[in-house]
Amino acid sequence: MAVFSFICITTVFYVVFLGGIVSSQTTHHEPVENHSPSMNTCIQNGIPGIPGQHGLPGPKGHPGDKGDKGDPGHIAVGEKGMKGEPGVKSSQMGTPGPMGHVGPIGPQGPPGGQKGEKGEAGIVSLKIAFTAVNSQNKIVHMGNYMGNWDHMVTNKGNDFDQKSGMFTCRVPGTYVFMFSCLKFSGDGPVCQLRKNNEIVTSAYVGSSSSQFHQTTNGATLALSVGDQVGIRIEFRSGTLHSNENRYISFSGYILFQD
To answer: What are the C-alpha distances in Å from 7 to residues 36, 38, 46, 48?
Structure first.
């Protein structure tokens, strides 16, 4: 701006100076018109004024591109310090810590000493008992066992066979057996209590009189597993008398177990 002002002032001075020279050499004076743009500009523009105030800040520009990743920094490791002095040992023990968890079960240990002696057998309440009866006259044949009992009063353990009339021992022990028979008039058979087909005891049923004759007998027997007990008819065949009063019966039960 200062250079432009200097040029304008120099141009004006130059024009004025030439105008004086021309007017002194020419007799006819005519007004001189200045058609120079620079002259007009210099004449019209005055001395530069005082600079104006700063304008408002422009809008924020767009963010620039992301720069390159820098080099990793160096980790400074200091020198190892000197070993410290040992701490002071306390004469008092600290408080015990909490109880730890229960460990796993260890392996099975070796067998113990010799096997102990067998203990005594315990007392077992056995239910073995039976009673078989006939409620009507029964024809019996010599050499046969009395079977086909028509009614079972009891048969605990089911060791008595109602059809064959035989008791078979299942539990070894001591047993009690009893039987009873009735005969009316005339001679009757002999009823024998037998164990494994051997005579244990007998009872004669009958007489020459015409009266009723009742007989009974029994025995206590030691039985082993598989032994059989029954009533066998001997001497003669015949008919035993009975009715709803049940005069013919055969019973047995265990007294104690071996």
So the answer is: 13, 9, 13, 13
Helix axes 37-44, 2-25, angle to 10 degrees: 120
Instruction: Using a pLDDT cut of 70, give the percent of the chain over it.
Output: 72
State the first-to-last Cα distance of the chain, in angstroms, to the nearest integer. Answer: 148
Q: pTM to 2 decimals? A: 0.51
**What is residue 122's three-state secondary structure?**
coil
Across 55-69, 105-119, 186-200, the highest mean pLDDT is recorded for: 186-200
Across the strands, what pairs with 133? 151, 249
Distance CA 205, CA 133 (A): 17
Could you tell me the pLDDT band of residue 161, with boundaries at 50, 70 and 90? Answer: very high
CB count within 10 Å of CB 257 equals: 14
Q: Which of 190, 203, 89 is nearest to 143 (CA)?
A: 190
Using CA atoms, how far residue 202 sits from 142, 171, 177, 218, 232, in Å, is: 14, 25, 12, 9, 9
DSSP category for residue 20: H
> Are 252 and 160 a contacting pair, CB within 8 Å?
yes
Nearest 5°: CA angle at 122, between 118 and 127? 140
Q: Token digits for 114?
A: 């010799």
CA-to-CA distance for 111 and 21, rounded, in angstroms? 152
Cite the beta strand spans of 146-189 per DSSP E. 151-156, 167-168, 173-184
Rounded Cα–Cα distance for residues 38 and 14 (Å): 12
